[in-house]
Amino acid sequence: MAPGRMAWLDVTKGWAILWVVYFHSFTCWIKPPSPIGENFLRDVGRPETWTGALPFFEGMGRIIGIGLSQLGFHAVGLFLVASGFVLAQSAMRAAQKGGVPWGSWIGSRLARLYPMYWFAHLVYLLSPFVARLEPVDWRLGVSLSGFRFLWIDWNFFYLNAAWWYFCLIIQLFALFPLLFWALRKWGPTPFFLGAMLIGFAARYVMLYVHPVSGQYVLGGCGLSRMPEFAFGMVLGTLYAKNSETFEKWLLRGPGFWAGFLLYPLALQVYHLPKGYVAADLLTGVACFLVVAGASGFWARIPHLGRWLAMAGTFSYGIYLVHQPYAIHFASFLKGQPAGLAVPQLLLLAVGLALWGGGLEKILGRWLSGPVAPKPARP
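Request: output the structure for the sequence above.
Response:
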């Protein structure tokens, strides 16, 4: 972990990216009922078989294990909150020192995002151990541009389905200067309420007024996921103003328990009429608070904390390369019982994290060029 980084945030992102990799591997092994389904507890736990303590604990184990394995997509909301947090606290400190140089700011972000994104394409095209579900054709050019919302039904999940998130994040980065201006002008609460209103309105229109492809709601239209990003921005400004108080709230219990209590309520929102308008925000916020709230504990475990922080530091590279490998290798586990498959899926997640993180580290060193030797001490 680089000096000056927030250990708890890197650990949070480390858990989240490992969860995402495991989720994609798990869902290629089996496809059990979804934990957001109305009958999940009955279908997975099978309470009619709870005739004693052992069947009860077995049923609860299935509920927890399959539920956590299937909810990995909620980590998307966590990363959106984390992205808003990092950008806002950095921009707020720059503004306090005299202003944010938006031209160089945007340029540095694009220089951070695009090279690894393009490199992931090259790795995919050259690697012999990836799932190739679609042919390489004209859509490759659209994919390289990052504008996967163009002809969205053909391009959004093209080649590597996980790359849809890149399309979303560049939209939010483009909106960030305007959002940051609004945050400073209106203050945290009015800003967040306004962002939530715009995001919910966009989702409502796309879902119910003029229904469009669900891929726009997922992230093809950046406005649909702006509430999570805006929530992260609010947290980032609070951190920049008083990091000690913020970390005390987040890492010493209150933040964790707030997320823990919110999570079951957020899951129930999926079942409300038109509840999906708010579901992504609520689950994203709950997920961030729970995982970040626990990260203070994990960060204090020497070896585990260090490795999780390392995974978080290179979570971008892991995200960009993992899914085609996850599909390819997890497909060999189909039909195997959980006792054999789950440990292998966990090892696969760790292996793909090492692979993706290593690639990002190699590319970073190559782009930064040779490091000048330190002058000899007299």
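The chain has one domain: 17-36+71-365.
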